[in-house]
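Q: C-alpha cells for this one, please.
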Amino acid sequence: MQTEVGEEMCEEVPVPALPAASGGVRQEEELIFKARSLSVTVEQVVGARNVPLVLLDAAFEAQVKDWSSKLLAESSLTLELAYYNSRLAAWEPIIECVSAATSESGADSVNFLPPVMSVTVHQALGSSDSVQGHWFLERTSLESMTPCCLCLTSDEGRRRRQDPLEMTVTRTCLDVLTSLQESLGGALELTPPVADETDAHFLIRNRLEQQAVVATGSEYTVHGSDIEEVVLEQGAEVPLMARDLSSLQRPGTSTALDSNRTIHIKVPSLGWSADVPVTRAESRFFRVARRRPDGAECGLVADIRAHFDSKIVTLRSCVQVENHQSVPVKVYYMNSGGNELQCVGVAEPDGMLPLPLSAVYSSTAELFFGVDGYTVSLLPFVWRDLQKNPDLTMTLKCDSKSGQPGQPFCMLCHGEMKPVLFETSRAKTLASRTYRVHLRPPAVLSNLLPVALTYLRPGDLEPVTLEPGGSCQMPTAQTGDRVALQLLSYLDRRWSCSKQLEAEPDELTVWTFLSADGDYQTDLSLGMHTRTVCGSQLMSLYAPFWMINRTGKMLTYKNCLDESVNETSNLIYHPETFLEPVLFSFKPSSFFSKKKAAVRVEDSEWSDKFSLDTVGSGGTVTCATHNWDYGISVQIQLSQSGLTRQVYLLPSVVLANSAPFAIQVHEPAPEEDWITVPANTSQPFWPRDRAKELRCRVADTSEETTYFSYKSTNTCLLHLSNTYGGISMSVQVSEASTIITLDDYVDGMAAVRLINNTDNEEVAYHQKRFEPHSVLKPGEVRLYTWQRPASERQLSWSCGKVKERLDTLVKDGIGQFEGKDGNLLYWVSFLDGMQRTLMFTTDVVVATQAHNAVELERIDQEITVSIEGVGLSLVNNVSQTDVMYMGITSSGVVWETQKALHKRYRAMTSLQCSILERAHQNFMNQVQVGGNPQPRVVLDNKMEVDFSIMQMLQPNRRFLRRTFQSGLWLQLRTSTHQRQLHAKLNRLQVDNQLLDSVFPVVLAPVPPPKSVAADNEPKPFVEMSMVERLAEHTFIKQFKYCKMLVQEFHVKLDQGFINALVDALSVDKLNRNTKELVESDLEVATEELSKKVAIRSLQEQRNFYDNLHFSPLKIHVSFSMTGGASSSSGGSPPITSGFINLLLQSVGVTLTEIQDVVFKLAYFEREHQFLSQSELTSEVVAHYTGQAVKQLYVLVLGLDVIGNPFGLVVGLTDGVSDLFYEPIQGAIQGPGEFAEGLALGVTSLFSHAVGGTAGAVSRITGTLGKGIAALTLDEDYQQRRREALNRRPTDFTSGIAQSGRGLFMGVVDGVTGVVKKPLEGAQEEGALGFVKGMGKGMVGLFTRPTSGVVDFASGSFDAVKRWRKQTDLKLIKKLNRTMDQDEVTRLRPPRHFQADRIIRPYVRHEAEGAKMLLELEKGRYATTDAYVAHAICRADRRVVFLLTDFRVFLLNRNEIFGNWQVDWTYMWKELSGPPKLTAKGLELRVPAAKKGFSLFGGSEGAKTVPITDKTSAEWMKNKMTETMQQYNV
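A: Here is the predicted structure, written as C-alpha cells:
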C-alpha cells in the first residue's frame, strides 16, 4: 500500500491580459481532473492483527467544459474489486479484468485490462440544423430551461465489444462477504479480543518424531534476535518474522503474482534438507535418505496452511488419522520385531492425529485401533493398500474387556488418498501422495420427531434419550442386530418398535410402533430415511405428516386409503387444547402411495377427501352440520429436513382486532350472539349466515355500525355516532382464507374529504340509491364515509347546474361545470396522503395545483445507464468447479426510424431489420472494395432507402439509424413532482457450466413464432416502465403507471446442477444439524394463529397504485434426475440435497424426466389500490407461485417416464394456430401479403404435422435410450453418451452422421467391454472387481448396442425435426421473411482452473483448450493430464497443438462427427530437447523408433508443428521450455 508522492494540482501561473471579447464571442471554460490510483482496503481486526477482506482499485479521469453556459462533462472510471482468500493467501477477483490476446490464434501472452465505465453529463440543447433541434425548438417555446442529462455507459474503447462486465462469486467470496457483514453489524459492540493462533509471518511446527532444524539466515528473525538456526523437538514450534517487509506486501491487484519465498529446513537424522516454498497454501512431498525395511523410499510432507496473512508450515508424515466418533481412539502399530503393538497417540473426537514416520514406514504398514473399555482391534488397517484401492473401507471390531459377553465396539475405517506437489516442482507424481484414515461409527441415529425418542443400544442396560432433533452414534450396532426404539410420552401412551438392521437398507423404509396402553392396541407407522456416507449409515426417524390444529375446535382426522381398517383405529383425535403437532401416518402398505385424508369438526360430517402431498398449495374444505358449515383452511408446507409435511388446519375466516380496545361483531341473524374480540388479538370466526355480512361495535357501547360485506377484498371506515367516531375495517380474501382486520380510526380511511371552496354554492351529496342527501355549505370541510358499505360504492353529488354526478372516488380527476349563476366552477379529485379529497372551487389555479398535473411538467434531470453486457460466474473454488454462468447480452443490429420534427426513434420490425441489414452489408462491401454502388435501392417491392443519407424514401419518408440494444439499459427522468423510470434487459441467459450436464443452458428466452417475430419489433426479455408522482408534504408514494413485461422463456434443470448449486452457495457452517432443523420446525409449528395468517396492518405506510400490471409468464420447464455434480468438499451431504427425489419417493411417484412442460401463469394487476411494500411482495409471490404449484400438480402427465407424448398434440396445435392467425396478419398488410401468409400457414401446418410427430418420437426414444444406457451399469459410458448428445449437430447431414457414429460405437463398446470391463475391475478391486466387471461386460454386450440403436432412432428423428426447421427457414427466406433462430448454446466454455487453485480472471483461450483435453478420446486424458497451453495452427482452426503437464498433442478436427482426433502425441520425457523455431512452425526432436501415420510429418526423428502465426509459434516455444523446466523434464 505504498503511497505515491502527490503533485500540486493548482499552480499560480501568470496569465497575460486577454483582450476584451468583442462581438459576443464567449471564452471557453475547461477543468481537467485526474486521480491515477485510488485503493481502498477493508480489513477485519482479529486479535492483534488486521485481516484483509476486500480490495478496491480505481482510477478516475474527468473533463468539464463550459459550465457557465452549455455544460459538458466527460469522465471515465476504471474499477477492480477483489477479495482476499486467506486459505491460499491470494487476492481473487470479484470484478474481473478483461483478458486480451494479440494474436489471432489466441496463443499469446494475455494482457488484463480493467473494465472502464464512461459518464457523460451535458445540457440537452437543440440546434437549428438538426431534426432533434427542430423538435426541441417546438418545446422550448413552452419551457425556459433544458434538462441536464447524465449518461453512464460501458466503455468499449479499451476492450473488445464481446467482452461484458465480468464478475465472479466463489464460495470463499461468500464467506468473506458474510464475515464483512458480521463485522459491520458488530462494529459498535465492545467485544473482548479473540485469541489468535499466531501473529507471526510464519509458524513452523514439527510433528515428526525427529528433531528438525530451521535456518533463519538473513531473511527471517525469531523475536527480533539474530539466531541463525532453531532446533525444534517433536511437537515444538517457532514463529518467524520476515526482515524485509516489502516482500510480504500484498499485491495491489488481483492479477498480480506473489514473489517466491522459501524457508530452509533440515532433519539431520533423516539426512534431509530442502528449501521449502512457502508462498502458497499447499502440501509438498519430499523424499528422505532413510529407507523402508523393504528398501523402498521414505518421505515427509511439508503442509503449508494460510491463517489470515500468516503461513503455518507443519512437518509431518504422509499419513493422518481423523476421528469422527464421539470417543477418543488410541492408534497402534506393529513394531519392527512384529510381536508387539506400540501406541503412537490418541485421536481425539473430531480431531486429527499425524502418525510418526516409524509407524508409517513399518515393515507391515499396519494400523490398529482401540477404545477405553474395549480391546485393540484384531484386524489391522493397512494404509499402503490405498495405493491399489483408493476407496478402501473396513469394519474393525474391538471386543469388550468386562469379561462378560457383550457387543463389540465397531468402527468404520475409510481411507482417502490425495496427490500433492512433488518437492519444489509443480508436478504431482505417483510417489507424492498423502493418506488420511477416517474413523467413523457404523451408524448414526437422528430424531426428526417433535417428541423425545429413546434408543436401547445392543449390549447396554440403560437407554439413550434423544430429544427432538437429537442424534447419537451407534458404535455397537452391527448388521443383523435388533434395535429397540420407544416413544414414552406421546399422547400419554408408550410406543415401542424393534427392527433388525440391514446391510444395505432402502433409502426410505417403514418402522411400525405399537402401543398396548388402554383398552385396545394401536399402531403408528413412521419413516426411516437411511443414507450411506463413506460406509456409515445415517438414519433419521421421521413422521410423514405433522397435523397442526389452530381452529380452536376439536378435530378428527381419517385416513382415506385404509378404509378396510377398523373405523375406530383409523381415527386420530386432535383436541383444541393440544397445541403440539399430532403425528399422522398411513399403514405400511400405503405408506409410499398418494395420500388423502378427511377431517371433521367436533360432531360435523366428514369433509371431502383432500391430498396431503401437494406441498406449497392451500385450499378450503367444508365440514357440514345440520345448521351451518365449518370452513377449514388447509395449508401444506415442507419441513426443514425435507422429509415431513406440516399440515396446518386453520379457520377459513379469521377476526383480527388491532385496536387498543375490544370490539364485538354480529351477523344479520337476530338470534346470534355478539362475538367479542379482545384488543390486539386474533380468533377464529365460524359464519352461520350465508350473506357474509357483519356489523360491529366497541365493547360495552350501544352504537353499532352498518353492515359490511366480507365476500371480497375491500377497506372502509365504518361510522360510529359516538366518541370513537368509527372503526377501520379491512378484508383480505384469498383462495384459502378470509381475514377481517378491525382497527381504531386511521387517517385516510374515510371514503372522501369534501371541501367546498366556493363563495355561494352548496354541494348536495349521498351514496348512490340511498337517502337522505347531505349538504356541504360554502367554506365547509367534511369527512364522509359510505352509508351502506355492503352496497355499490359511488358518490352522487349535485352542485350548480350539475345534478347527480357519480364518482367512484378511486382515481384522480379534474373538470369544470357551471354554477347556478352561470359562472365557471371546478371540481378536482386528488390524494392528500392516504386521504381521497374532492374539492369544489372557483379558482382554476387552486384546482390545477391540487390536481398536480405532472404530465405538463418539464423534465429537469435525466440519467441514462447503458451497459453492453454483464456476466456473473458462480464458482465453487473448494471443489474447483465452474457451476453457473449468467450473462446479460446485447442484441444484434436493429434499424430504427424517426419522423421529421420528432425526437424519438422507433424500432422497425424484425423482418424489415433483416432486409435492411442485408442490403446495407452489400452496399458497404462494395464501398470497401472500391466500387461505386447505387445508394438508393428498392427493397421488398415497397421500401425504398438511400444509404448515403441514411433515409427511407418509401413508403414513408423517415430518417434511419443503425444501432443495437444494450444488454442493460436504464433511464431515470425526474421533475419537481414526478419520477419516470424505464428499464430494459435485452437478453438473459443462465448456463450450466458442469462438464457432465444434461442441459447446458438452464434459462434463456424462447424465440416467438416466425409469423409473430417477423411482423413485430424486437422486444427485450424484460422491460419495465414506471411513472411516480411526487407529493411535497407526504411520504405516501403514488404510482400512476407501473408495468413490467417478461417474454417467454425456458428453464431446464438437472439434479446434478441443483446439487452443485446448493454446494456452491453453502457458506461454511450454513448446513445446520438436525437439532437446529427440528427446533426451527417446532418453532413454526407452535406459532399462534395471528402469526400464521397474514394480518394486514392498517397503520403501516402504504403506497397508492393507479395502474399496476405485471405480465403473464409463459415458462417451458424441463427437468432430469441425472447430470454431472460437483465434487464434494468433504463431509456428509446435507439431508436436503436430494429433497426432490425423497419427496417423490414418499409420494410414490418415480420421476425420471420432465420434457418441455409449459406453465402459463396469468398476469397480476391492481388498479386504484393502497398497498404496502410487504403486501405487494407477498401478493405477487403468492399469485405466481400459487399458480405454478397448482399447474405442477395438474400437469403431472408431463412426468411420464417415456418422454412427453403431449408434444404430438402441441405440434399439431401450433400448426393450426399458424393457419388461423397468420392469414389475418397478412391481410392487414395487403392482398399480396394475404396470399403469402396463407401459403406460409398451410406449409407450417404440414411441417408441424411432420416435425411435431418427429419431435415427440425423438424425445420418447431419447428417454428410452437414457434408460437403456443406465442399464449398462457403466457411469463412464453414460457420461460419454450425455457429452455426445450435448454436441448438437448443425444440419441434417451431421445429425445422421452423429447418430450413425453412436450406433457404430455402441456395437464396438459392447463387444470390447466384455474384455475391458473385467480387466478394469480387477485393477480397481481385485477378484471382486473382476467379477463385477464381467457382469458389466456381459450386460453391456446387449444393452450398449441397443442403446446405440435407440440413440440412432432418436438422432434421426431429431435430424428430421431440424430439417423441418431448415425448410421453414428456406421458405421464409424465399418469401422475404427471414428470421435468425439459432440454436441456444453456452455463452462461454467452463472456466479452466490452474494447479495452484487460485481463481484468476477468465481467459476464453484457456477454457477452450481445457475443454478440448477433457473431450479428447472420450475423456481418456481428463484424469491423468492437466492442461497447460494450446495454439491454433491454421486459419481454418482445424489443427491444434496442445500441451499438458505430461505430453504434447497434435490434434485434427473431424468435421463429420465434430470431435478432435489425435494425429500424434509424445510424452515430455520422449523429447530430445527444447523445440526449435523454423519457417514451417516448431520442430520437435522425437525418438526415431516412434512410428505412426501423420498428415504433418517431417524427417525421421523430428516432428513439425505447422503453426502459421509466428507470434503464436514463439509463444508456444517459450511455453514448452517453461513447462519442461517447471516439471523437471
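A few notes: Residues 1292-1374 form the longest helix (83 residues). The first strand starts at residue 30 and ends at 46.
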